[in-house]
Design brief:
- The protein is globular, with a radius of gyration of 17 Å.
- Residues about 1-35 have low confidence and may be disordered.
- The protein is α+β, with helices and mostly antiparallel strands and about 250 residues long.
- It is built from five helices and 17 strands.
- It has one domain: L,D-transpeptidase catalytic domain-like (Beta Barrel).
- The longest helix is centred in the N-terminal third of the chain and has 19 residues, at about 1-20.
- A hairpin with a 5-residue loop joins strand 4 and strand 5.
- The strands form five sheets. It has a six-stranded mixed β-sheet with strand order 12-11-10-7-14-13, covered by helices on one side. The chain has a five-stranded mixed β-sheet with strand order 3-2-1-17-6, with helices on both faces. Strands 4-5 form a two-stranded antiparallel sheet.
């Protein structure tokens, strides 16, 4: 606990220094969607809020799997037989289990020059945006089949040169998968909305390398990040829950 507290103090100090220098990160809608990027101040606040996560245990995860149409369960542990594993559940049935790479969990500088903490935040999340093609301006790298679920953190495909790293913490914070796995996940997420049939969704070519998918959202309850409990607040998302845990 002491080392974690010291880490937060160190990063908070770095953030304050950046703030006074005018270099703090503003999370605009466009900037927030950058590969695996969690600004230092957001990391600090997320860690402070996530000290207690009563729902991130086997019972809470199992309950979520049984109560939601689609669940993407990501184990970000660094060691163990189930470490760095993504499991996909549809209607309570496991349909996919693959090795993935989550964040390196350290302070680092991206190719864009931004300093941030490469973490994959723990908790329960709803997908926020889905892209068929996406280009990370932060890491200057493609992110096919990106399913964003908090800030700039997404499940997406990585290049074949990174396949040997799958099963280890090796990303900038996103959840990396093989191309065919990312495509299946994206399609399943879309199907948990109004469906992926022609006419029920649209791909917007917002800019080069960023083809966003819209018009297949449904109204669902927001989920409480630490417990996974359904909240009264309704949001337009997909009938999907992303769970990031560590055990």
């Amino acid at each position: 606990m002491g080392s974690s507290s010291n880490k937060i103090k160190l990063i908070l100090g770095s953030f304050l220094a950046l703030s006074f220098s005018g270099a703090a990160f503003a999370l605009t809608d466009q900037e927030a969607l950058s590969d695996g990027m969690m600004p230092l101040e957001e990391y600090v606040m997320s860690e402070m809020k996530a000290v207690v996560t009563p729902g991130l245990n086997s019972e809470g995860i199992e309950r979520a799997i049984q109560n939601h149409r689609l669940v993407i369960a990501v184990n970000k542990a660094v060691k163990g037989p189930e470490a760095q594993t993504l499991r996909l559940f549809e209607n309570g049935v496991e349909i996919l289990k693959e090795k993935i790479s989550t964040g390196r969990e350290k302070e680092e500088k991206a190719k864009s020059g931004r300093v941030y903490f490469s973490t994959t935040p723990k908790g329960y999340f709803r997908p926020t945006k889905v892209y068929r093609d996406y280009m990370s301006y932060t890491w200057q790298a493609p992110m096919p089949n990106a399913v964003f679920f908090i800030g700039g953190i997404a499940v997406h495909a990585t290049g074949t040169s990174h396949y040997p790293e799958l099963g280890t913490r090796a990303s900038g914070g996103c959840v990396r998968t093989k191309l065919e796995v990312s495509k299946l996940i994206r399609e399943k997420v879309m199907d948990s909305g109004k469906g992926s049939a022609a006419g029920q969704f649209k791909i917007l070519n917002e800019s080069a390398g960023r083809n966003r998918i819209i018009h297949n959202l449904v109204e669902v309850n927001q989920v409480e990040r630490k417990t996974g409990e359904l909240l009264e607040e309704k949001i337009n998302s997909w009938d999907t829950v992303v769970i990031v845990y560590e055990e």
